[in-house]
TrEMBL record:
Function: Catalyzes the hydrolysis of queuosine 5'-phosphate, releasing the nucleobase queuine (q). Is required for salvage of queuine from exogenous queuosine (Q) that is imported and then converted to queuosine 5'-phosphate intracellularly.
Keywords: Hydrolase
Lineage: Eukaryota, Metazoa, Chordata, Craniata, Vertebrata
Top class in the EC scheme: hydrolase
InterPro entries: Q_salvage
Entry similarity comment: Belongs to the QNG1 protein family.
Reactions listed under catalytic activity: queuosine 5'-phosphate + H2O = queuine + D-ribose 5-phosphate
Molecular function terms, GO-annotated: hydrolase activity
GO biological process: nucleoside salvage; tRNA modification
EC number: 3.2.2.-
Protein's UniProt name: Queuosine 5'-phosphate N-glycosylase/hydrolase
Domain of life: Eukaryota
PANTHER family named in the record: QUEUOSINE 5'-PHOSPHATE N-GLYCOSYLASE_HYDROLASE, QUEUOSINE 5'-PHOSPHATE N-GLYCOSYLASE_HYDROLASE-RELATED
Length: 341
């Protein structure tokens, strides 16, 4: 078996060999045009991470970096069997679901004096304490709570052993290179190794490691230790929401057989052919949308709030999916239960 492909190489290879998932060129063009209208707005710039999301830290200090690290260590699998019956977390008068329920629970714990973002705490936190910290306001708990406990202990111990308990030390060891940080994370922390096989090749999507680099860049506002010279080498994050929104916007299509399977709510195993095709084609689709958008910007000589990269397109599309949840009801997301996304 050949060597490990990078996420971008993996996505291209999957898209070229996919049988049940297809990229629609016309849809790619239309999404690029949708994004062109937003190019100079607050969404498609690094500052949007803070200005658009009240639960994200305001600061750009070591504590904020360690907040990002613990969040992205647990940033996986929030979908519930029945959407109307799910984990909800109330925080400061608002109710949060999905990914935001994780952020709300972490902020609630900090308000309660629980140092959940400190490695010295979560390296030895007990399962009962984790159940309490991530408790739901409904009778549906946050999915994979035992796995979240195991990963917190494992990750906290490694952060203490290798990086004196602070993710900022890991960031500073990567010489302001996004790729070096990405590889330091996947080499050091086993739960970030989002790697599988497809057609005889070893492929990587590294969804949580890539979003960790992206969120570190964002929380540091692209400055100082977060001024990654190669930040644009990071691709979109292959989760279960981006495919759904790309299908909704017409940039991605499923075969009838796959669509019927997803509409039935059938689960797909992590690393199965159709699951890999959905993730790989979504990633490649966003790369093509970015290329198309940069071409449109070039032609129109439009001004932007800084370099437009796949991270900002991903953030925009993920927020778009959040804001259009009702409209997207008819489009199924794929159900894979795993710790990688
Ligand atoms: N591709 C992509 N996937 C993302 C995110 C985020 C959160 N990032 C936000 C936070 C700050 C930034 O401003 C971003 O807006 C979470 N996820 C994934 O989605 C799924 C949860 O979805 P739902 O069940 O609807 O909450 C789950 O797999 C989770 O890992 C993203 O940005 N891109």
């Amino acid at each position: 078996m050949d060597g490990l492909l990078t996420p971008r190489e993996s996505a291209k290879f999957v898209a070229e060999n996919s049988r049940d998932v297809f990229i629609d060129g016309g849809g790619v063009q239309r999404v690029a045009e949708l994004l062109l209208a937003k190019a100079a707005g607050p969404e498609l710039r690094v500052g949007g991470w803070k200005t658009l999301h009240e639960l994200n830290p305001r600061a750009a200090d070591e504590a904020a970096v360690n907040w990002v690290f613990v969040i992205d260590t647990l940033n996986f699998s929030f979908w519930s069997e029945r959407d109307e019956h799910k984990c909800l977390v109330g925080y400061r008068g608002k109710t949060y679901s999905g990914y935001w329920s994780l952020c709300a629970a972490v902020n609630r714990a900090l308000d309660e004096g629980i140092p959940i973002t400190s490695a010295s705490y979560y390296a030895t936190v007990t399962q009962d304490q984790v159940r309490h910290i991530f408790r739901s306001d409904t009778d549906v708990p946050m999915p994979l709570i035992e796995e979240r406990h195991r990963i917190l202990n494992e990750t906290g111990k490694i952060l203490l052993e290798k990086f004196e308990g602070s993710f900022l030390n890991c960031v500073q060891k990567s010489d302001k290179s996004a790729q070096k940080l990405l590889h330091l994370v996947v080499e050091s922390f086993p739960s970030y190794r989002d790697v599988t096989q497809f057609e005889g090749k070893i492929i990587s999507f590294y969804k949580r490691a890539q979003i960790l680099v992206a969120d570190t860049w964002s929380v540091l506002e692209g400055k100082g230790d977060g001024c990654f010279k190669d930040i644009s080498s990071i691709t979109m994050f292959a989760d279960y929401r981006l495919p759904q929104v790309l299908v909704y916007l017409g940039a991605l299509k499923y075969s009838d057989e796959l669509l019927e399977k997803l509409l039935r709510g059938e689960m797909l195993s992590y690393g199965s052919r159709q699951e890999v095709e959905i993730r790989g084609c979504s990633l490649w689709c966003v790369e093509l949308i970015r290329d198309c958008l940069l071409e449109l910007l070039e032609k129109k000589g439009e001004k932007t709030g800084g370099e437009i990269n796949s991270i900002l397109l991903d953030y925009y599309l993920w927020d778009y999916a959040r804001d259009h949840r009702e409209d997207m009801k008819g489009i199924p997301f794929h159900r894979t239960r795993c710790i990688y996304y």
